[in-house]
Amino acid sequence: MSTATTTPPALLGKSGLVFLAVVLGAAVLVPLLNLLTAPDSALHVPTYVVSLLGKYLTYALLALSVDLIWGYVGILSLGQGAFFALGGYAMGMYLMRQIGPRGVYGDPVLPDFMVFLNWKELPWFWYGFDMFPFAALMVVLAPGILALVFGWFAFRSRVTGVYLSIITQAMTFALLLAFFRNDMGFGGNNGLTDFKDILGFNIQADGTRLTLFVLSAVALALGYVLCRFLVRSHFGKVLIAIRDAETRVRFTGYRAENYKVVAFVVSAMLAGVAGALYVPQVGIINPSEFSPANSIEIIVWVAVGGRGTLIGAALGAVLVNYAKTYFTSGMLAPYWLFMLGGLFVAVTLFLPKGIVGTFYDWRSRRSPAPADLEPADLAPADLAPPDKALPEPKPAE
Amino acid sequence: MSAADTLEPDVPETNDPVLAIAKKDLTEALLYLDGVTVTFDGFRALNALSFTVDPGEMRAIIGPNGAGKTTMMDVITGKTRPDKGDVFFAGGTTDLTKLDETQIATLGIGRKFQKPTVFEMHTVIDNLRLALKGQRGALANIFKRETAAEREKIDEIFQTIKLNEHRDRLGGALSHGQKQWLEIGMLLAQDPKLLLVDEPVAGMTDAETAQTAELLREINANGHSVVVVEHDMTFVRDLGVRVMCLHEGSVLAEGTLDQVSANERVIEVYLGR
Fold it and tell me: Which GO CC annotations does the UniProt entry carry (chain A) (predicted)?
């Protein structure tokens, strides 16, 4: 335990600035290396790699959203993928409406899968998605409202710890089953795909792909600044206090459940934005995004990078997904899930604070007063949520 | 524990001045408990407990393990709902049995737990900032800035709890005694009308115990009512206040420490011969 600095720390510490520089630097450098170098140059970044990196950045934003609630409030959500998928579906619906008469069946309004199902008119919940601003609003509203309703009931009933994790898992599984059904009107098993253009730009074009990459980087940077601002505010201090001693917080006069709901909703909205940027870059959204395994994978990213550090979550997402791309494209592909599971076990045992948390520890041991690290940023070493800080008093005495 | 059934529901011998319960008028009392009964799986943790605390009073509560001291605090702070009985606050204006922990804390009842409970990953000063009376809304606190008055108040509390040189250390890095003081400081920051303090000197050295007694007297002198639960008789003597002995969920004796410790029943069940 080191002593903290006495001067009020700036919004972004040194590591925060480095992080932003890297993300925004990539946003400039990667498109330049794509456009200005010859295709056979060693420095050339092919467009498919740009999209792959863009996908990693949306995962990083998703991991950031998990870290906000897991690292700072102790809410271990195993259903964050649901919010990501909802944001993705909102974007996918917009992209479907943009196809217009260019679909296989040539119907000017109905997406192909509806014509195939013999539907005669557009379901009411598809209205408005032909307008981008409406779809963009839904990208944050749909996950946000689900998180508000879910969080309101769960947190008001004081569901915490493992039980909360299980019901978040159940939530995403229920959505998975629902979206699989054809009559839900979201394309069933196949989901939404065959997108043509976005805001009038061809979605396959190199320029669009580069733009989406840059937007993903900007969204990650803004998401980081927002999360950082939140966790450094008085609101954020209450969140950390809830993580460490929820009962104390209640007896201090704070409505812990309200704080949790607000954090949960913000987190869900960030996940929704990540999903919306993900879909046009991978070209498809289907119910498998709701699968519980996906949500658990996000937890692994955050644990690897360092829970309660924000930067670590983003770093973990990129590293693990790079490893996934690397290993699943070779002969080791059948063993990837074993490696992922092994990674999680290894991190929990040997690197409980993750990469960034361990780095912060190492740095604060070297210099006793780190310039920017708030001690509260580091979650307790155990990966399980500290759901009961106070032992329940015995019935009498 | 099995003797719970055989104990008479209320305290007898009202002609005995030591055993007489100070049942004040509801409207005068800061805290008013009447006939409060709490049962856990057939075990009566509180058995028709009745007492009152006056505004500005400091009261010490002693009693053997299982006497219901912590349950009494749980009832007052809204953690446990009584099966029977009335709990009123501030001259009978507020029925505490209808409110939850957060509402009761906001009303002005602060509680220190038996095990010191501070926010371990926050600095000492942040612990006080979090406890400081003021805005509690989630959205409003996103943009909250510390005012000069708040800074002043925190400095004042640091003077009282004497942890000034530790203000930037983590709460979790403090010693046991310092954590107890920090928690008392957090209570002060809440500026409650009534402080409930559960075993504040458990695990403290003699010097720390004496300092804690002084601290609580100072807090009481500044107009806060205090209810202290404690086993340490030296400490209770240091406090020099009215003492109440609980046994099997009701008041066994009440009066000065000397009166209570001379009481036959108290000697029998608690102090030992």
Answer: plasma membrane
